[in-house]
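From the pipeline queue, job 12 of 40. The input is one protein chain; the requested action is below.

Action: predict structure.
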Amino acid sequence: MLICPQCKFENPNSNKFCQNCGTSLTHKVCPECSTDDVPVNALRCHNCGTECGTVFWAIIAKETTGEALGDEGDQGDEGVISGSSPLSSSSQIGLDSYLDSQERYQLLEPLPAQTETATITDVGVKVLDCQPYQISPIEAILAGQQSDLLTPSVEASAIPPLAQVYIALQSQGLREIPPIHDAWQQGDIQVVIIEDRSHWQHLLDLWQEETTSSLEILHWCYQMTQLWAVLEPVNSCQSLLDLSNLRLDEDQTLGLQRLYVESSNSQLPAESPEDAQDQTSVIPDQPLTIQALGRVWQALFKQSQRTQFGSVVQMLGDLDAGKIQTIAQLRSRLEEISIELEALGTATLPPINDENTAVSTIPQLDQPEEIISKIDDMQTVVLGMQLNSLEDAGCTDVGHQRDHNEDYFGIETKIHKLQLPKSRVLQGHGLYILCDGMGGHAGGEIASQLAVNTLREYFQEHWIANQLPTEDSIREAVYLANEAIYKLNQQDARSGVGRMGTTLVMLLIEDTQAAVAHVGDSRLYRLTRKRGLEQVTVDHEVGQREITRGVEASIAYARPDAYQLTQALGPRDENSINPDVGFFDINEDTLLLLASDGLSDNDLLETHWQTHLEPLLSSGVNLEQGVTDLIDLANQHNGHDNITAILIRAKVRPNLES
């Protein structure tokens, strides 16, 4: 089954184009030079040389020691790795070879040669997915799809134990754990394909930088305690003990490059011979306790040549002496140190509940369901957040069926940044307005433009610096916009359907605080990695009105007037409108989208958010191109109305400056 990268439609393997949207299933577009005939199985663009292939990290692990790799002890010079279907025992693995007999996963680097004195028990290598649109059995399981993809050779019982751990942790929505893409097992060899994080920054590198604050280090320590409590039930705490495995994403949030499961007899590699002594000292011979976590922190301080600060010396001493015995006690100590360091008030670590956070070691589990049932629902650290970046982009399009555009939008932002050698403060101020006009040519576009300009002028005068406007102030602004359009209707003696009006959705951002106001059916969506896509506003239309009165949705939207607006700016005086106003905090990286109904109709965003919105959370993805892609998507699937979109990407980080 081939999954279309554009619309996620399921296509037969023989299809060269998506039978739903026509997207090529054999070629892709280079993100750098826009060449549109790059084979999907190519690592680099043939035109500009940009690496645009789908690269994963492959883990090849042997469950038991002292046996030869491959089936029945027969092997080539470099060992045999079984694939989705059995490989012959005489197969050889080389630089241009594949991990599997279907030739899907191509090795991008050679496997280490096996010698008589050294047995390979755990190898990690980059691989190119030569069939990136082909759904894997693991993906089918995670998506809850039917098991027709699970042939007898790859049925659930054949999923490697290591893969089961990834599946269980991924189901918890833990971004710190690399997502699993594929896996299989033959004999005692496990192959697990996961996200490639080899290019992520090493925690050690940032730990040793002078600009890294003490509280930032403390925050990473706290993240490690969270991970310890999650990994302990699945015997994977060793994943935290290899310094080279501790990585940071683009937002400097801690993540693991891969998992090490203790029962799999995997061996942790040292980064270099000179580091071997430090690496080995982190890993105790006896069963793991949180003392090992303290030794990781000591190793980070030692290898970064950074001096331990304040009460951290005492905490590490107490850890080593066994005076701190539970994760709950360790978190409590970290909380005390954070208060001592910065006195941040509410921007400190959360209270500790021993009953919920103390986790004990449990036996190795075999099934993902059992693992899931044993993993604690760990509370996320709550530090005060500050804005790290604020970016936006907007675009409007007439669509395929209208001869003029009645949509209008406005974006007004101010960014103030102060950066010193050991501190960085960014203050963001943003006003985003989208209006979808009505009233015909020379009516709707006048109303929408008048509303945007009236609101902009109001907030230029009444928005106090560094303070989000109050609900009363926002309502006053909306009423003034309504009055401006209403007076123009009265002045021109417009009546009935000739009276012009407009919908409104407006977002105001002041650092990490936001407010939204709306009238009509233009919407605000919010997307985060933890919660997915959420529709923040509720349309002011007959169908929704009936639902609030207790009518079932199917009945409410069976009415012929279900989509008729119950509120709009302009047709009537201010007594006829009641704008919805709400407030929320931006406490994690967030993508916000203001959309007219030309984009949101027919559940278009709900259907395609994973392909067209989720990638935009990453700082490396261009928002301008993202807006253009949304317009193209709407024209492809809707196109019956004008289309307008405003994207805002707000990235945050813990408030670490005093």
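Job complete. The chain has three domains: 57-167+177-195, 202-374, 385-473+500-539+578-654.
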